[in-house]
């Protein structure tokens, strides 16, 4: 397919030469201070098991950013978000000076991130399935007996986690999350998260995709106004499954880096740095999944 941007031949693993103070690095994103706003740049880095791989996926950061921008546009009917009002014009101007940034960057408001991640689950998968198999519950929620891996839950469930600076985020009960950020704010985060998930489910199904689960992040301004921040409903923050191949009772194929995780799981590697090299076939197969997710989700 033709893309409204040029996919790079080489992955962008580091960002260099910008005239803005560097504030923070994540597994994928770099954040800079533009004075009145923040610049978030999505690199092409790939992480698995909280370890950044030595190789990247050329264009992955562009795909993630463009998917997020589409969802932010749709989410604006449900909640304010962190993009500055003149985002498109400022990104275009930025791209004039730094062309490699144009399609992989967001200019966002300076906000105070909440110390929880808002996870919504619609299917029994991942850590949720492991918890159910061990305890018969999905964290604090009771579920029917005899459910199968990847089976759809009776209703979407909100399962927040702590937000770890490094390492794994950990599940937290809703009551504890409410105590952490305030019950009124927590109720608003939960309500909006469930609404966003349902919106994602409907639009994904039209594209032939099941949205199994996802995580959102929120922040507040100095007045306490709540905003949706970070990324939205991307393959990095969500578990997407091809609808035509869905079959409960087993793991599902997915449009994300699970292809990398599956390869690494077959190696004798202790999940600590340094990571093993990734073969070209694994990199190509993973990027192909991101491209397919972009194609389907953006139409």
What are the key terms here?
299 residues; D-amino Acid Aminotransferase, Chain A, domain 1; seven-stranded antiparallel sheet; 7 helices; globular
Distance between the termini: 11 Å
How would you sum up the global shape? globular
Tell me the name of the CATH homologous superfamily of the domain at 112-245.
Answer: ATP-grasp fold, B domain
In quaternary terms, these chains amount to single chain
CATH class of the domain at 112-245: Alpha Beta
- Rounded mean pLDDT is 95
Query: Strand fraction band?
Result: 15-25%
Main structural class: alpha+beta
Q: For the CA atoms, what is the radius of gyration?
A: 19 Å
Task: Tell me how many strands there are.
Answer: 15
For the biggest sheet, the summary is: 7 strands, antiparallel
Q: What is the name of the CATH topology of the domain at 112-245?
A: D-amino Acid Aminotransferase, Chain A, domain 1
Unreliably modeled segments: none
CATH architectural group of the domain at 112-245 = 2-Layer Sandwich
Helical residue percent band = 25-40%
The topology string of helices and strands comes to EEEEEHHEEEHEEEEHHEEEHH
* SS element count, helices: 7
How do you describe this structure in short?
The protein is α+β, with helices and mostly antiparallel strands. It has helices spanning 60-75, 87-97, 126-135, 174-181, 183-206, 258-265, 280-298, and strands at residues 22-25, 29-33, 38-42, 45-48, 51-56, 105-108, 112-113, 116-123, 137-138, 141-142, 152-158, 161-162, 209-220, 226-229, 238-242.
């Amino acid at each position: 397919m033709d893309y409204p941007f040029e996919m790079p031949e080489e992955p962008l693993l580091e960002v260099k030469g910008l005239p803005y103070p560097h504030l923070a690095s994540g597994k994928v994103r770099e954040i800079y201070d533009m004075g009145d706003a923040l610049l978030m740049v999505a690199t092409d880095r790939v992480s698995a098991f909280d370890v950044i791989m030595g190789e990247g996926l050329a264009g992955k950061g562009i795909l993630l950013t463009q998917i997020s921008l589409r969802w932010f546009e749709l989410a604006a009917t449900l909640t304010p978000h962190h993009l500055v009002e003149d985002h498109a014009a400022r990104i275009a101007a930025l791209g004039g000076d730094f062309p490699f940034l144009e399609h992989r960057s967001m200019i966002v408001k300076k906000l105070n991130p909440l110390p929880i991640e808002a996870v919504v689950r619609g299917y029994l998968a991942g850590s949720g399935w492991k918890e159910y198999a061990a305890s018969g519950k999905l964290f604090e929620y009771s579920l029917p007996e005899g459910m199968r891996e990847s089976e759809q839950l009776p209703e979407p469930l909100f399962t927040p986690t702590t937000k770890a600076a490094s390492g794994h985020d950990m599940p937290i009960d809703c009551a504890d999350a409410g105590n952490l950020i305030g019950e009124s704010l927590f109720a608003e985060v939960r309500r909006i998260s469930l609404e966003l998930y349902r919106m994602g489910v409907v639009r994904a199904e039209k594209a032939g995709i099941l949205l199994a689960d996802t995580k959102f992040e929120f922040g507040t301004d100095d007045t306490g106004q709540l905003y949706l921040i970070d990324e939205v409903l991307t393959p990095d923050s969500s578990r997407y499954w091809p609808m035509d191949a869905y079959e409960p009772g087993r793991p599902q194929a997915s449009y994300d880096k699970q292809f990398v995780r599956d390869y690494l799981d077959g190696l004798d590697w202790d999940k600590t740095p340094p990571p093993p090299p990734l073969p070209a076939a694994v990199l190509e197969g993973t990027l192909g999944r991101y491209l397919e997710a972009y194609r389907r989700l953006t139409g």
